[in-house]
Queue: 2 jobs
Job 1
Amino acid sequence: LAKTTQPISMDSYEGQEVNITCSHNNIATNDYITWYQQFPSQGPRFIIQGYKTKVTNEVASLFIPADRKSSTLSLPRVSLSDTAVYYCLVGASYNQGGKLIFGQGTELSVKP
Amino acid sequence: GAVVSQHPSRVICKSGTSVKIECRSLDFQATTMFWYRQFPKQSLMLMATSNEGSKATYEQGVEKDKFLINHASLTLSTLTVTSAHPEDSSFYICSATEQGNTEAFFGQGTRLTVV
């Protein structure tokens, strides 16, 4: 299983762009990269998923280099409500036998 | 996105009793479900993976006789904490995925307190 490494914590201010990088050096060929957001006492919430290059949706962008050994979640113009823990997961859960293993996550604190 | 409903959201039970937590996929067929436990200020720890109609696969260190998982249908999986003790108090979260869908969907979690 591909292990992920992220910064434990990050601080930002409202209106700034936040980039969180995740390392996954032994990602497998059929693994996807998925980012989740978790607020206290809630289940994780899907943010974005990608396989390679760049993916953008209404809340974030995901940048994946050609070697796929890392990925960067980009949150444009964060607000106080973006204060949460962000997890980078690598895996192929859609295959029977696949697992979703959480790393330690990045605790993002957005200040006014 | 797809919805996974987890029930109850919080439960308090006495030591020695058993507690059942339900996880339902409301609008898709959950061929695989995952059960996690999360302690305060820690990440989610995978307890077991269950495929519909098969026995669950437990992670190392997780007692299968204590944490009974049943995935009898494509929309329902249950986790039963048997003979609960205060150290079992934690936040339990389920996740479900559908064959061919690359995204996994999470329930809202269950806060278990054993007194």
Job 2
Amino acid sequence: GQNIDQPTEMTATEGAIVQINCTYQTSGFNGLFWYQQHAGEAPTFLSYNVLDGLEEKGRFSSFLSRSKGYSYLLLKELQMKDSASYLCAVADSNYQLIWGAGTKLIIKP
Amino acid sequence: TAGITQAPTSQILAAGRSMTLRCTQDMRHNAMYWYRQDLGLGLRLIHYSNTAGTTGKGEVPDGYSVSRANTDDFPLTLASAVPSQTSVYFCASSDASGMTDTQYFGPGTRLTVL
């Protein structure tokens, strides 16, 4: 079967750095997405990786290793507004997105 | 632009009743999707449409139907609601079909079936 694994919850301190991991087993791979979802709101796009390596976008970076079935989202200089759930999703061989359950990130002052 | 709109925002529905969740996008995207989101689970695809006039079944299609009469609208119908259909429903769209492209989400409809 297809499976996306992420930690259920993480806690970090304002101003610090946090890494959210995602491992996947899917039938085919056509890219990996990270989305942010604040409580009661819709998911919003953060990043997309299809090749191995690091993609940097401001305070957020995303890394992919296809051989290991592994990605992480790195958030730097954490702000209180970063408190949200972070969703990992993989596009399978049919280009359909398979979603992880999300990681709830709690930022403490 | 509005992006994607969904209606209603929330609804309480008696079991056995029918209901249509509305979704409209103004981005002229080819593909549209319906997901449900339940606590502790990832988003699960109910139905999708790669282009106007075509639809397909996702991971959890039973009890739901869709239509895609034009590019902008993609309604989701529950013919006879059951309590297990209590969930938050998200509509999404993307520019490309048959390839990987970013999906953009509507604000969601919170449905409670009693």
